[in-house]
């Protein structure tokens, strides 16, 4: 599997290169062959003209005998590798540079085609069936004082040209083989530089699938592979973080369910076996009731967050007075504030301030934030709730003067089951889900929420809402 991609690249390269070579060499071969044939025809015409004008004319005038001309055309045949014929004025073949005229002695060229006797001609083929192959044939009439004296024919075997053209094919094939060897070497070298990181990423992905997120990819490139490796490393980090949150979630939810269940079981058992007397049962039944309420709230909060993640939060938008909701929420905590002697100050922008949102969800946000403010405020301290307007937004601030949150812990406060007190002793009635719910509600409204806190001085939460026009 590891070499499949590289093998595909090499095979594809071979196929493309071979097809390209075949097409290129075939076209080149034909072009070169046609060029050589044309060039050879022109050369044969030139030689035939010279031979006719200078030597054959001399023979006809008596200055050169048949032996001399026979010797001459034999030498010229060997020099040009061209068969030479001479036909007299009657169209009869009388000389052959290769002394093979006997089979054609009784053939009269006039009976074939007058054009090959009286005119300059050139053709490619078997020359009217005289040869058992393909030849370039050039004919030149011999004229003396405008009188026809005969014709000279030069025949060149095209097979010789094809053999020369095939050399190009052979050289091309050798070049192809050398090119393939060099190219494949480069492909293997550079291919491994690509395939190896991909294989490493594949191995890492398999490890991630099995829950091992500790593998880190190292790719020192800025190309797409380097970007992919960086993305996988980021994904592994996020998956590791999610896995840690999942384990923490299970541990926290187990703890938060176990504690009230243990209390309920212990008190109910004590009542049933008579350990708790009848006159004290009401007290402990109230404790059991409070614990069941705590379990109910925890379950509701978990179901709420789960529903938001799976199907989203359905918001019922309407226009309402945010000041009225603030007053209603603070009234619910009046007794708790009195118990800790906490003074609540409302710094509201005006008597009525209309916003456009889901009133029930925003009331839940205010309830959770104010509950935290009361819970973590010192005795004899104060809480301030303030509203301001800026353009199309309304800013709601809840500021306490309690113990505050350490700076390094601020980024964790939105996590489920997170509690700022590691011992969990100061907030035994909390679920650790309140701020997670707050953030999800505000996000569902496409609004923002921020937190500012100083250890030992207090915490301020500020969120925005859309002002109603």
Q: What labels would you give this structure?
A:
Beta-Lactamase, 18% strand, Helix Hairpins, Heat Shock Protein 90, 5-stranded mixed β-sheet, 469 residues, alpha+beta
What does this structure look like?
- This protein is α+β, with helices and mostly antiparallel strands and 469 residues long.
- The chain has three domains: 160 residues, PAS domain (Beta-Lactamase, 2-Layer Sandwich), CATH 3.30.450; 68 residues, Helix Hairpins; 154 residues, Histidine kinase-like ATPase, C-terminal domain (Heat Shock Protein 90, 2-Layer Sandwich).
- Helix content is 54%, strand content 18%.
- The strands form three sheets. The chain has a five-stranded antiparallel beta sheet. Strands 7-9-10-12-11 form a five-stranded mixed beta sheet.
- α1 packs antiparallel against α4.
- One of its GO terms (molecular function) is phosphorelay sensor kinase activity.
Order of helices and strands: HHEEHEEEHHHEHHEEHEEHEE
User: In which order are the strands of the major sheet placed?
Assistant: 2-1-5-4-3
Number of strands: 12
Top CATH class of the largest domain? Alpha Beta
């Amino acid at each position: 599997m590891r070499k499949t991609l590289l093998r595909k690249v090499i095979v594809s390269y071979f196929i493309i290169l071979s097809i390209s070579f075949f097409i290129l060499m075939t076209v080149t071969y034909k072009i070169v062959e046609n060029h050589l044939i044309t060039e050879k025809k022109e050369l044969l015409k030139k030689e035939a003209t010279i031979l006719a004008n200078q030597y054959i004319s001399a023979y006809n005038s008596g200055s050169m005998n048949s032996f001399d001309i026979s010797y001459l055309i034999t030498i010229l045949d060997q020099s040009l590798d061209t068969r030479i014929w001479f036909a007299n004025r009657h169209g009869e073949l009388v000389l052959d540079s290769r002394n093979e005229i006997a089979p054609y002695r009784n053939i009269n060229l006039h009976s074939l085609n007058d054009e090959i006797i009286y005119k300059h001609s050139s053709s490619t083929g078997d020359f009217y069936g005289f040869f058992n192959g393909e030849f370039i044939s050039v004919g030149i009439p011999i004229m003396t004082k405008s009188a026809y004296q005969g014709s000279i024919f030069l025949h060149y075997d095209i097979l010789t040209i094809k053999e020369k053209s095939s050399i190009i094919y052979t050289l091309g094939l050798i070049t192809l083989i050398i090119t393939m060897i060099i190219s494949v070497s480069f492909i293997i070298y550079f291919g491994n530089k690509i395939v190896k990181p991909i294989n490493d990423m594949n191995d890492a992905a398999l490890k991630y699938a099995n829950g091992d997120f500790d593998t880190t990819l190292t790719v020192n490139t800025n190309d797409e592979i380097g970007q992919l490796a960086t993305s996988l490393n980021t994904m592994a980090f996020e998956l590791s973080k999610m896995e840690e949150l999942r384990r923490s979630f299970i541990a926290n939810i187990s703890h938060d369910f176990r504690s009230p269940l243990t209390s309920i079981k212990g008190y109910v058992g004590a009542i049933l076996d008579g350990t708790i007397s009848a006159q004290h049962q009401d007290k402990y039944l109230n404790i059991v009731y409070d614990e069941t309420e705590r379990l109910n709230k925890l379950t509701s909060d978990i179901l709420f967050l789960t529903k938001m993640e799976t199907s989203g939060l359905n918001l019922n938008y309407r226009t309402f007075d945010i000041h009225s909701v603030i007053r209603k929420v603070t009234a619910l905590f009046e007794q708790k504030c009195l118990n800790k002697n906490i003074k609540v100050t409302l710094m509201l922008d005006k008597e009525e301030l209309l916003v456009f949102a889901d009133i029930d969800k925003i009331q839940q946000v205010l309830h959770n934030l104010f509950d935290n403010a009361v819970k973590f405020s010192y005795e004899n301290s104060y809480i301030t709730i303030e509203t301001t307007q800026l353009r199309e937004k309304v800013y709601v601030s809840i500021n306490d003067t309690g113990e505050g949150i350490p700076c390094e812990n601020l980024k964790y406060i939105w996590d489920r089951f997170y509690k700022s007190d590691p011992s969990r002793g100061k907030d035994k009635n909390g679920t650790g889900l309140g701020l997670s719910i707050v953030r999800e509600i505000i996000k569902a409204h496409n609004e923002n929420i921020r937190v500012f806190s100083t250890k030992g001085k207090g915490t301020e939460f500020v969120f925005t809402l859309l002002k109603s026009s």
